[in-house]
Structure formats: structure tokens, C-alpha cells
């Protein structure tokens, strides 16, 4: 029996001719070609999956074009010489799998998995490409950094688009049924949740925030952490909400990067303009009505809501004592987005309350 990989057989008119064995250098070359072939395919496939979401999910021509451009650049390196080394039947890696690859919990997890897949493939191509062509390593190193930027831009755009589509914002309060209540609201159409807990120890906060982050992302909803930038990063939250006395927004942005959301609380026009100028993605406006959640903050009333409707250049959420009984007063004052706490967290039927609030916020206003 011939040793695998060392001999070729050529049949001419039924005669088998034994060919000289490959040299060690040629064997290594064939292995390198197979590695390049597999990772060129892997990078292009991952980019195509990302491209489809940029095209159909985000409807963003620029991000779609960036994915397509990189796929085409990769294709140039996928030469016939490299393809000829492919040996799919003999590839033991085709049988390997992992349970996490069998399902995706959300579009976000799908995108992140494929972005990681592309980045890993590009790193392999960068290193093994140095054995194939003097320019290949440099080309794929540069492309890897482009994919890092692409990842930031996709996640930032995805979050901002979902923020713009979110009209109801649930801020949690301490509850024995925290997860169940939030999930009930998510079932009612909620797409934005903030975890707020001022009293529990960090171990419980980390446990609850981790579960809430996973829950929100499984429903395709944004998950924000109140005050704590470190906790937001630890649980892969979509962002953080900061009060006027919390960490400076500029420092939070340095830590979180451009792809995560930062919200800020405001209680008057001066704070609103200052907070927007500092670079937040959205603001809270209130408390509109007196609320035990903010016992030290006097109610701003509907006047500040009307001011925000005319002057805010970014998405804003009226907050403070808002419920099913007064939401239409907020809407009449110009509010298109509201944040609630007790009206959902203490509701007997959070799903129905959520659906009602959303139905009011999404209603078509009559034209004057």
C-alpha cells in the first residue's frame, strides 16, 4: 500500500504508472495551499452572511458595499493553484462542530459569530499568506483591521436604528419577578430595557444583568445598564444611561467606544442642551410627574416635554410617573417616546399594558 500523500498514480490505457514521491517542500506547500483555500472560503462566506443583513436588515448601501468590496478582494487571491489543493473528503475538520453553532439566539449573535469567523480567517490568511506571496500577509492584515471597523459600524448602526424605532422604554425596579415581568413586556412588543438597581450588591446585579441582557437580545431588544459602565461591558449590554452626577459622558465614550449607546438624564432646557452637546445618543426628559423613583427631583410638567419636542436634535424619552391614564397628555404635548417604570413593573398584566402604551404611541395623529 502506498503511503498517503507521497505518490500519485496515472492511468494511461489501463497501465498504472508510479510517479516520484513529493518532496518535503512540496508536501508543506500543498498543506499551506489547503489552509489558504479553506480560510479564503471561510472569510468570503462570513462576509456574505454579514452583507445580507446590511443589505436587507439594515438597508445600508455603504455597509453592504464594504462587505462586497472585501469579498471581491479576497476572491482575487483565491487562485486556481490554491483551489487545486482542496481535498474535502480527506478533511477531518468537516466532521467537527460545536453546540453553539447549531443555533443562534438573535440576529446580533449571528452577526457577531460571523464577524469573529471572518476575523479569525483573515488572521490565518495573514500568517500563512506570507508563505505564499510576499504581499499576501500585508493585504490580509490591512483587511483584518477594516473588518474591525466594519464590526463597530454595523453594531453602532444596528443599535441606532433600533433606538429610533423604539417608542417605549422600560426602566426596571426591584422585583421578585424581574425576569418574568420583563419577558412579558418583551412579548408585548417592547424593544428597549434599562436595568436599574441602586441597592443590591454587585454579585446580584451581575447575575440579574447577565440574564436580562441575554433575554433582551433573544427578543431582538436593546439592553441598557443604569449608571454602571463596568457592568454594561461585563454583560455585553448595548449601552449605559447616565445621570447628571454620574461618570462624565466623554469618559464613558472612551471606555465604551463608538458602537454602544449612551443616554443621559435631563431635567431642564440647560441640561438638555449641555447633555446633547456632550455626545449622548438619546436623553431622558423629566420627571414629568412626581415619582418615588426620583424623590429628590421636582416634577417638570408638560412644559419641558413641549420644549424637548421643539428643540431636541436627538431621540428623547419623556419619563416620570407616566402610565396608561396620562400617556395621551404626553402625546398631545409632543412626546413620541416615553419611559415607564411602575406602570409596567407593577402591572398585573405587563404584556397588555405594554401593548396598550405602544398602541397609543404608534397611533397616527390626525393632520391639522
TrEMBL record:
Binding-site list for 4-amino-2-methyl-5-(diphosphooxymethyl)pyrimidine: 194-198, 226, 265, 294
Main enzyme class: transferase
Residues bound to Mg(2+): 227, 246
Reaction(s) this enzyme catalyzes, per UniProt: 2-(2-carboxy-4-methylthiazol-5-yl)ethyl phosphate + 4-amino-2-methyl-5-(diphosphooxymethyl)pyrimidine + 2 H(+) = thiamine phosphate + CO2 + diphosphate; 4-methyl-5-(2-phosphooxyethyl)-thiazole + 4-amino-2-methyl-5-(diphosphooxymethyl)pyrimidine + H(+) = thiamine phosphate + diphosphate; 2-[(2R,5Z)-2-carboxy-4-methylthiazol-5(2H)-ylidene]ethyl phosphate + 4-amino-2-methyl-5-(diphosphooxymethyl)pyrimidine + 2 H(+) = thiamine phosphate + CO2 + diphosphate
Chain spans, region Thiamine-phosphate synthase: 147-368
Alphabetical UniProt keywords: Magnesium, Metal-binding, Thiamine biosynthesis, Transferase
Entry's EC annotation: 2.5.1.3
UniProt superkingdom: Bacteria
Transferase as UniProt keyword: yes
GO biological process: thiamine biosynthetic process; thiamine diphosphate biosynthetic process
Cofactor(s) annotated in UniProt: Mg(2+)
Region (Unknown): 1-146
Pathway noted in the entry: Cofactor biosynthesis; thiamine diphosphate biosynthesis; thiamine phosphate from 4-amino-2-methyl-5-diphosphomethylpyrimidine and 4-methyl-5-(2-phosphoethyl)-thiazole: step 1/1
Domain Thiamine phosphate synthase/TenI residues, every copy: 168-344
HAMAP family given in the database record: TMP_synthase, TMP_synthase_cyanobact
PANTHER family linked to this entry: THIAMINE-PHOSPHATE PYROPHOSPHORYLASE, THIAMINE-PHOSPHATE SYNTHASE
Protein name in UniProt: Thiamine-phosphate synthase
Organism per entry: Amazonocrinis nigriterrae CENA67
Amino acid at each position: 500500500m502506498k503511503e498517503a500523500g507521497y505518490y500519485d498514480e496515472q492511468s494511461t490505457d489501463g497501465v498504472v504508472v508510479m510517479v516520484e514521491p513529493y518532496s518535503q517542500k512540496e508536501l508543506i506547500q500543498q498543506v499551506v495551499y489547503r489552509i489558504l483555500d479553506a480560510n479564503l472560503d471561510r472569510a468570503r462566506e462570513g462576509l456574505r452572511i454579514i452583507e445580507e443583513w446590511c443589505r436587507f436588515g439594515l438597508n445600508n448601501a455603504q455597509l453592504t458595499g464594504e462587505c462586497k468590496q472585501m469579498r471581491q478582494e479576497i476572491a482575487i487571491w483565491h487562485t486556481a493553484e490554491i483551489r487545486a489543493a482542496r481535498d474535502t473528503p480527506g478533511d477531518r475538520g468537516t466532521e467537527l462542530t460545536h453546540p453553539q453553532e447549531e443555533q443562534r439566539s438573535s440576529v446580533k449573535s449571528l452577526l457577531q459569530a460571523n464577524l469573529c469567523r471572518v476575523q479569525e480567517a483573515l488572521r490565518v490568511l495573514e500568517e500563512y499568506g506570507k508563505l505564499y506571496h510576499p504581499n499576501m500577509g500585508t493585504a490580509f492584515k490591512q483587511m483584518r483591521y477594516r473588518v474591525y471597523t466594519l464590526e463597530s459600524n454595523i453594531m453602532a448602526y444596528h443599535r441606532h436604528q433600533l433606538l429610533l424605532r423604539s417608542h417605549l422604554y422600560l426602566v426596571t425596579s426591584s422585583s421578585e419577578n424581574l425576569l418574568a415581568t420583563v419577558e412579558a413586556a418583551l412579548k408585548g412588543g417592547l424593544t428597549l430595557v434599562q436595568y436599574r438597581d441602586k441597592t443590591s450588591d454587585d454579585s446580584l446585579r451581575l447575575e440579574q444583568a447577565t440574564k436580562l441582557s441575554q433575554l433582551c437580545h433573544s427578543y431582538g431588544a436593546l439592553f441598557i445598564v443604569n449608571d454602571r459602565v463596568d457592568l454594561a461591558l461585563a454583560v455585553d449590554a448595548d449601552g449605559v444611561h447616565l445621570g447628571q452626577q454620574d461618570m462624565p459622558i466623554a469618559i464613558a465614550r472612551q471606555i465604551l467606544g463608538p458602537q454602544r449607546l449612551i443616554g443621559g438624564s435631563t431635567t431642564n432646557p440647560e441640561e438638555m442642551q449641555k447633555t446633547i452637546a456632550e455626545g449622548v445618543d438619546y436623553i431622558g426628559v423629566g420627571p414629568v410627574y412626581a415619582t418615588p423613583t426620583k424623590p429628590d427631583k421636582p416634577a417638570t410638567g408638560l412644559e419641558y416635554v413641549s420644549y424637548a419636542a421643539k428643540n431636541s436634535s436627538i431621540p428623547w424619552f419623556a419619563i416620570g410617573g407616566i402610565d396608561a391614564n396620562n400617556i395621551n397628555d404626553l402625546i398631545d404635548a409632543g412626546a413620541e417616546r416615553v419611559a415607564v417604570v411602575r406602570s409596567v413593573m407593577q402591572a398585573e398584566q405587563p404584556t397588555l399594558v405594554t401593548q396598550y402604551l405602544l398602541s397609543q404611541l404608534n397611533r397616527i395623529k390626525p393632520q391639522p
